[in-house]
Amino acid sequence: MGSRLAGRSARLACLWRVDAVGVVVMASISLLFACTTQRFSSAGPTAGFWYQAGSGVLPADVTARLHGPLKDNEIELIKQLSRMEIDRAFSGLSITVTTNPNAFWRVEVLQSLPVRMSQKLPNAGESVALGALGGRGAVGFDLVALKAINYAPAGAPRHRIIEGIGRGIGRVAVHEFVHQILGAAAAHNDSDVNSYEYGSPDRASQYYGDLHWTTALPFLDKRFRQ
Q1: What is the pLDDT of residue 22?
Q2: β-strand 135-140 against 125-129: which pairing, if any?
Q3: What CATH fold (topology level) applies to the domain 2-224?
Q4: How many other β-carbons are positioned within 10 Å of the β-carbon of residue 53?
């Protein structure tokens, strides 16, 4: 599996996947809608971000390129850095980032995302936008780690690549949250490779540069600026 992943990454053009789901509120789900709305309004909008157990175990070929498996302290650093990236991206907005899997919008970090029948290549992130019911999404740890290795500066020490993995995961999560919050159409800006809204994490700045908001910011400001 690992060798196929590495081979596919060389041809990778776009790693995002979004399923926009139209929400029809019917009597049979009225209670669920009411509870969800109450959670949103009473506690403020929440973005849940967490790691599935064992998600930091990498395929053999990726582990070899990293010169050994990730250690527990390295995985913990990756978790901290990814969370910091989400906090930084939403700084000043009334969005509370939490580890609660029952948050209004949710992104879970998995070891790998499945390649669906409609796909030819794996994804780094995917989301389902549920409108008034929030949203859910996921990040593939293995593919983000591979791209962080691919884009590492020449001679970069291991600790710098580890940091790149953490930043990369957090920034993929930010992109997926924006898909859930604003919808697929409002989340992409392919004219600025250093933006959160850029349509692919297949770029050096995803892991080793600075990202900024562009087209999504006015919409986020209007809804969530404190």
Answers
A1: 36
A2: antiparallel
A3: Collagenase (Catalytic Domain) (3.40.390)
A4: 7
* Contact call for residues 4 and 59 (beta carbons, < 8 A): no
Q: Is the dihedral of CA 125, 198, 169, 64 positive or negative?
A: positive
> What's the rounded Cα separation, in Å, for the pair 138 and 157?
28
pLDDT per residue as tens digits for the range 53-108 = 999 999 999 999 999 999 999 999 999 999 999 999 999 999 999 999 999 999 99
The pLDDT value recorded for residue 122 is: 76
User: What's the pTM value of the predicted model, to 2 decimals?
Assistant: 0.82
Beta-sheet strand order (sheet of 16-20): 16-20, 125-129, 135-140, 105-110, 46-51, 96-98
Packing angle between helix 141-150 and helix 158-182, nearest 10 degrees?
130
Cα-trace Rg, the chain: 17
CA dist., res. 173 & res. 179, Å (int): 10
pLDDT tens-digit map of 10-53? 444 334 544 433 333 333 333 343 344 434 445 579 999 999 99
Where in the chain are the domains?
2-224
* Cα–Cα–Cα angle for 179, 70, 61, rounded to 5 degrees: 85
